[in-house]
Design brief:
Layout: H1 4-15, H2 24-38, H3 40-44, E1 56-60, E2 65-72, E3 75-79, E4 86-90, H4 92-99, H5 105-110, E5 114-118, H6 120-132, H7 140-157
Parallel strand pairs: 1-4
Antiparallel strand pairs: 1-2, 2-3, 4-5
């Protein structure tokens, strides 16, 4: 399996930048619906309150993608531009390692592979929130593939 992983990563490096060509309205619709669906339980529990009426910018530098995220009355909101208080940025591979839990979030931030700029307190609250989310919130097929991709990346990066 490890022999195929570098090929898959090279393919991802070529295919993922195409996401920047998807109209933002489509990105927003897909992300907003997916996040609000998958995170419905922690949203109801108030875990995202630090983002209420405050904007966080998530920026995937190597793909040229960025989304502003906030918590509104009906759940998480995605915008193209907003008065953001904090930006979390990095390359897609670092976000994959974070999302698949293959690398400790603190390590990614301390090694400056992921950056928090702006309101550090809000950024750390969001980082801790992401780290505390249970993988069971995702559909099993999505978590399996995310974890598999992250393990492949971690093995190649080691």
């Amino acid at each position: 399996m490890l022999i195929r992983e570098p090929k898959l990563l090279r393919l991802a490096d070529k295919v993922l930048p195409l996401a920047a060509k998807v109209p933002f309205v489509v990105q927003r619709l897909a992300l907003q619906q997916a996040l609000n669906h998958c995170l419905a339980e922690p949203l109801r529990a108030g875990e995202f309150e630090p983002l209420r009426d405050r904007w966080l910018r998530l920026q995937v530098r190597d793909l040229g993608l960025a989304w502003c995220v906030s918590l509104g009355r009906k759940g998480l909101l995605i915008a193209q531009d907003a008065p953001t208080e904090v930006t979390i940025s990095g390359n897609w591979r670092e976000f994959l390692l974070l999302a698949s839990r293959q690398e400790d979030p603190d390590t990614l931030f301390f090694r400056r592979r992921l950056l928090i700029e702006g309101d550090t307190e809000l950024g750390l609250a969001v980082k801790n929130l992401i780290d505390s989310l249970d993988s069971d919130l995702l559909p099993p097929w999505l978590w399996r593939n995310l974890e598999r991709a992250g393990k492949g990346l971690a093995a190649v990066s080691a």
